[in-house]
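Posting for a labmate who doesn't have an account.
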Amino acid sequence: MQDQVKLFEFPVRVYIEDTDIGGIVYYVNYLKFMERARTEFLRQHQISQQQLKQQGFLFVVKSVSCDYKASAKLDDLLTITVDIEHSSAARVIFKQRVMSDKVLCEAQVQVVCVNAQTMKPCRIPTHIKQIFKQVNE
């Protein structure tokens, strides 16, 4: 298992708009929190999704597997973690957690690199593969 220090962490505060009628975070919002964390993870590594698009590449989510363990509530301060579990020529699998004082949600998110015009899978650009490799070491 990778050293916890190597994980990327992104803070998220729970607002009223994130909750459902029961006063807990609506389940789909955990996915939004994780998307923000992945975007900031890429940004921290100087990977701009806008620049990628201009170069003809997009990252799209192919699949998500979530295990919800506990609920977050209004005003909770959450930590969203991002780690690379595996990467190959055209895809990367992120392991993500939503945490407060305990793990609230664990997810595996499979992201595929596609050609921006054809939307067909293509190889992840070499400089990004290098970054993913360095993060995963």
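Reply:
Got it, the structure tokens are right above this. The beta strands are 8-13, 57-68, 77-87, 91-99, 103-115.
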